[in-house]
Amino acid sequence: MDYRLVEKYNVAVPRYTSYPTVPLWENKDLSGKRWMDKVLETFEQDDEISLYIHLPYCESLCTYCGCNKHITKNHLVEEPYVKAVLKEWRMYTSRFPRKAKIREIHLGGGTPTFFSPDNLKTLIEGILGEAEVQKFHSFSFEAHPFSTTDAHLETLFELGFNRLSLGIQDFDEDILRLINRFQSAAQIEHIVAKAREIGYDSINFDLIYGLPKQNERHIEANLEWVKQLKPDRIAFYSYAHVPGVAPSQRAYDENDLPKGKDKWDLYRLGADGFLAMGYQEIGMDHFALAEDDLAISARKHKLHRNFMGYTPHHTHLAIALGASSISDAWSGFAQNEKKLKDYLQRVNSEDYPPLIKSHYHSDEDLGVRAKLLDLICHFEADWLNDRAYFDAFLKPRFELLQADGLLRIFPYQVKVTRKGQAFIRNVCSVLDRRLSAQELSKPTFSQAV
Questions:
Q1: Which residue, among 5, 23, 35, 140, has the nearest Cα to 446 in the 3D structure?
Q2: pTM higher than 0.90, yes or no?
Q3: For residue range 140-177, what is the model confidence (pLDDT) as tens digits?
Q4: Do 178 and 212 touch, CB atoms closer than 8 A?
Q5: Packing angle of the helix pair 216-229, 185-198 (nearest 10 deg)
Q6: How far apart are the first and last CA of the chain?
Q7: Which of 14, 87, 280, 324 has its CA 20 to 30 A from that of 25?
Q8: Which of 446, 407, 409, 445 is nearest to 424 (CA)?
């Protein structure tokens, strides 16, 4: 890789978890009834759903984190929150014409394992009591090594959970101390061994490159742990430094952050190490062993991506419960109230989910969204049904990327090269009709590398 390309394309661009990206939603209508009508319209076409549940509590603040969280050691907050989430779920299920078929559940946070096994059991039994579980399903949860007990693993497995994602970030104790995260390699080893003994199908490691004081020695040590523990999947994320969005990131000196070529070298060292161990690169930031269903779906061209990340399951309706969570009805998005106190108050006093943002797609939005998913999941897309648009608007822009070797242009089609996969966010931004130079100048989006 010519490092000049890294310098050229390392600009602030969206991660394209959604299209349009959340800061650019039109947000014209926050009517709970309109949103529910959109959900029911999608449900009538496809009653198989994915479900995301946001559990926002953490006992301590990890300073790198940009997630919506609430820091407390008071575990009395668990029960009222579980009751509120179940009440929100019934806002949907009471209006469905029949039971939903759940294909996928993901517990995110915050720290889902902040909650006791008993309260998680109450939550999941309440969810599943209102729906049917598909035979081939994927139930996963984010696990903090410090707070995940054997009882958590056993209880969730008995409830149908078959995947877990360990939030590791780095194995080095000095790095963890800098980002105020408390866990040990011994805890990680125990959780991995216990989960496999119980029967979990897939274990994911979340790792980050670009953390403060992190260097190649740390990445090499992380690779040794991966080699030893052999997780089924790895999410290898770039640290996103956006202190304007996440003020806790001001806890350390920006001069301690690897930047430019130093950060790029950390990424390449890690990615090349995973590939050398037999992992396959999946979309953006992800790696999986060949027999993992994420790798299988990628090979079969069935990989999908939603607010929960990459998934082998493509449901048109992804309902999200809990504070700040974002639902997807395919032709529309809606985000719940972010402030925890307001979320609890509104759920307990209103008849519809407590929305603070929404976006309803135009036909153009839907077309762009489909092509973005093709690019970010499969590194190729075609415009055979819209050739005039391709020639007039897209091709001139793609030609600039082709000149740098990031993609190849075919008749009304593009394929991202191996080199270009590292810059897939830049490639996707070519399609973004809503993104302007003014938006890119705001401290909203992280750097591409």
A1: 23
A2: yes
A3: 999 999 999 999 999 999 999 999 999 999 999 999 99
A4: yes
A5: 30
A6: 13
A7: 87
A8: 407
- Please check whether residue 301 lies inside any domain of the structure: yes
- Contact predicate 334/52, CB 8 Å: no
- Count other Cβ atoms within 10 Å, centred on residue 442: 10
Q: Are residues 170 and 128 in the same domain?
A: yes
Burial 235-249 (b: 16+ CB within 10 A, else e): bbbbbbbeeeeeebb
Residues 217 and 268 both lie in one domain: yes
> 3-state SS string over 119-163?
HHHHHHHHHHCCEEEEEEEEEEEEECCCCCCHHHHHHHHHCCCCE
pLDDT surpassing 60 at residue 232: yes
Q: Are 223 and 87 in a shared domain?
A: yes
Residue identified by tokens 């489909």 is: 370
Tally Cβ neighbours within 10 Å of residue 116: 16
How far is it, in rounded angstroms, from Cα 343 to Cα 346? 5
Residue-by-residue DSSP string for 300-366: TT--EEETTEEES---SEEEEESTT-EEE-SSEEEEE--SHHHHHHHHTT-SS--EEEEEE--HHHH
> Which two tokens mark 71?
């820091």
Q: What is the CA radius of gyration of the chain?
A: 21
- Which pLDDT belongs to residue 443? 52
Domain check: are 283 and 429 in the same one? Answer: no
